[in-house]
Write a structure and sequence with these properties.
Layout lengths: L1 E5 L2 E3 L5 E8 L5 E9 L6 E7 L5 E3 L7 E6 L4 E6 L8 E9 L5 E4 L3 E5 L2
Parallel strand pairs: 2-11
Antiparallel strand pairs: 1-3, 3-8, 4-5, 4-9, 5-6, 7-8, 9-10, 9-11
């Protein structure tokens, strides 16, 4: 599975961004997809995940209530709508994919930078 993120950028505090992640390859074998982020000097952090079949979603405490994860199965695309952005949301955001065979996030995109600053 190949993953390509887009949609990052510079936004002011309180603003919004929508990240996208286009998946290609063995997408018929997808189990779940997720967003992670890594801020400078910090370890990678889980943000949100969604099942590829069904409507199961999960969020980190930091993302709950401000971010919404969704998907378009027909276009094999994952989204992350981020509202009410804060400076502490500044990070490189990565999408990840888990296949039915392992149910582990073994596939990663290259990341897209989100910077929240005035």
């Amino acid at each position: 599975v190949q993953l390509v993120e887009s949609g990052g950028g510079l936004v002011q505090p309180g603003g919004s961004l929508r990240l996208s992640c286009a998946a290609s390859g063995s997408t018929s074998s997808l189990y779940a997809m997720a967003w992670f982020r890594r801020a400078p000097g910090k370890e990678r952090e889980y943000v949100a995940s969604i099942s590829w079949i069904g409507d199961s979603t999960h969020y980190s405490t930091a993302a709950q209530g401000r971010f919404t994860i969704s998907r378009d199965n027909a276009k094999n695309t994952l989204f992350l709508q981020m509202n009410g952005l804060k400076p502490e949301d500044t990070a490189a955001y990565y999408c990840a994919a888990a296949l039915q065979s392992t149910k582990k996030y073994d596939y990663w995109g290259q990341g897209t930078q989100v910077t929240v600053s005035s």
